[in-house]
Specification:
Layout: H1 2-8, E1 17-18, H2 19-25, H3 32-41, E2 45-46, H4 52-62, H5 66-81, H6 91-108, H7 120-127, H8 132-151, H9 177-186, H10 190-202, H11 206-211, E3 217-218, E4 223-226, E5 229-232, H12 235-251, H13 275-281, H14 289-303, H15 308-315, H16 319-343
Parallel strand pairs: 1-2
Antiparallel strand pairs: 3-4, 4-5
Helix pairs in contact: 4-5, 5-6, 6-8, 10-12, 10-14, 14-16, 15-16
Length: 344
């Protein structure tokens, strides 16, 4: 209400409020996002701002060598908006891609003046020092950039045509006692404990945890539906759910939001918490949900005899993912048998 008062006071009735005006006049304790949302519902909002990601593209490409800047900017805008043959990419994709190609372009600019001058030898030399995911991401970014340039007629030949991103070996071992104790020390609030319990017992992904709603819970019958997959609710998730729901009810008793996890911002609406919510509560403190989730699937694979069909049914995994976990479990079991035989 304070935010609405600040932007609507002394304004003629029915005159729209510009988004830039909201940002400049909003009191420090008020939510500009919430005020803009309310005004939009009333058809009183005029969005006159420039998208932050577009401003970022302009700023970053403006720092590139002159011969490359305009082409890279056009490439990033196509990634952002998509075209007839490609869907729009996420902001994270743009950040990663530009972060990969920017140092390469700056290095090439010392001897080259345009993308059309880059040769296969130049690309090979630039990639040779890179290893692992750094190399894989750089290859993906360069292929995307030069495919765009070729399609738009900016280059004569694509120097990345024969580039292939090799598979990165994935290693997965059971969680150690030290890792378990570290998670226990960090996950102390009801929300943190619930998130960890859902990943550790039901192998729930971060997105599924954020989108979990009260309608997915059947506490009297100890049932839960995660990402459309119904299953029996484990004892640990059941206890952590009860503790979190008590805190949720006491903190936001009148919230219209049906999502299980909410915070001060989402309690005012109906949407899920953002991915940053999970990162702030766990990832930034050293708790990796994918590591916990992977450990749960691997534990099931070790105890169930490395059966991919069983894993696919229990955790709603794809056949490829289930087979990968089963293969890892089988390798660990074989190593254990060999170790026992050598000791005897």
């Amino acid at each position: 209400m304070d935010g609405l008062t600040a932007v609507l006071e002394h304004r003629p009735p029915g005159k729209p409020v510009k988004l830039t005006e909201i940002r400049s006049r909003m009191p420090r304790h008020a939510s500009g996002f919430r005020v803009a949302e309310v005004l939009a519902d009333l058809d009183l909002l005029e969005d006159d701002s420039t998208s932050s990601i577009r401003s970022w593209i302009d700023d970053r490409t403006g720092e590139l060598p002159a011969g490359f800047a305009s082409d890279v900017r056009a490439w990033l805008l196509v990634l952002l908006d998509g075209d007839r043959r490609a869907r729009p990419r996420s902001r994270t994709c743009l950040y990663v891609y530009l972060g990969c190609v920017r140092p390469l372009l700056e290095n090439w600019a010392t001897t080259r003046g345009h993308l059309r001058e880059i040769t296969v030898a130049d690309v090979t030399a630039a990639l040779s020092p890179l290893r692992g995911w750094q190399r894989r991401n750089a290859i993906a970014a360069l292929r995307s950039l030069f495919r765009f340039a070729k399609k738009r007629g900016l280059i004569f030949a694509n120097p990345t045509t024969r580039l292939r991103a090799e598979d990165i070996p994935r290693s997965l071992l059971p969680t150690t006692d030290a890792e378990v104790l570290a998670v226990q020390r960090i996950a102390v609030t009801p929300a943190q404990r619930l998130i960890v319990a859902l990943a550790a017992v039901h192998a729930a992904r971060a997105t599924a945890i954020r989108r979990l709603t009260l309608d997915d819970l059947d506490l009297p019958n100890r049932r839960i539906t995660i990402a459309g997959h119904g299953q029996r609710l484990g004892e640990l998730p059941h206890q952590t759910l009860l503790a979190w729901l008590d805190q949720r009810r006491a903190t936001w008793p009148k919230t219209p939001n049906r999502h299980v996890l909410i915070n001060a911002k989402t309690a005012l609406g109906t949407g899920p918490v953002s991915p940053e919510y999970l990162k702030r509560h766990l990832l930034h403190q050293g708790v990796y949900l994918e590591r916990i989730r992977g450990d749960r699937v691997l534990h099931e694979a070790l105890t169930a005899g490395a059966d991919p069909l069983h894993l696919a049914l229990v955790f709603n995994l794809s056949h490829t993912t289930a087979s990968r976990y089963a293969a890892i479990a089988q390798n660990l079991l074989d190593e254990q048998i060999e170790q026992t035989a050598r000791n005897e």
